Amino acid sequence: MLGPQPLPAPTPFSAADAGLHVAAQVRDIRKARHLSQRQLASRMQVPRTYISKIENGKAIPTLGSLERLAEALQVDVSQLVRDARSRREEEVAAILADPFLAEIAALLPRLDSLQRTLLHGAIRDRATGQRRTA
Predict the structure, then answer these.
(1) What is the mean pLDDT of residues 93-100?
(2) What is the DSSP letter of 112?
(3) What is the pTM of this model?
(4) DSSP output for 10-24
(5) Measured in Å, how far apart are the chain's first and last C-alpha atoms?
(6) Distance (Å) of CA 23 to CA 28, 36, 82
């Protein structure tokens, strides 16, 4: 009988990593809101170059700037500092909220590779509007 397995060592997380996550989030949310860097800068009352530096990971915003960014983008501060894993978990949860997709997801582990390939092809064809002929 095996005892509890040790947890993997945490991955080192640097300020640069945090800056890159914030950069991508700010850029993605800004674009989703159909705002230019200039418009976002105007809302924050900062130079446009500051927004550019944040989005390019050349400047890491202070907590105060994060709060102003969040307010200008009309989001919670937590949305600006999410990492890829938490975004992926949210996307999976949103997909599984659909009853049909949740049912499909539950069946996937029981399919063999041929069945998965056929299902993938059928879904791709349906999504692109193509029909297979026998």
Answers:
(1) 87
(2) -
(3) 0.54
(4) PPP--HHHHHHHHHH
(5) 53
(6) 9, 15, 11
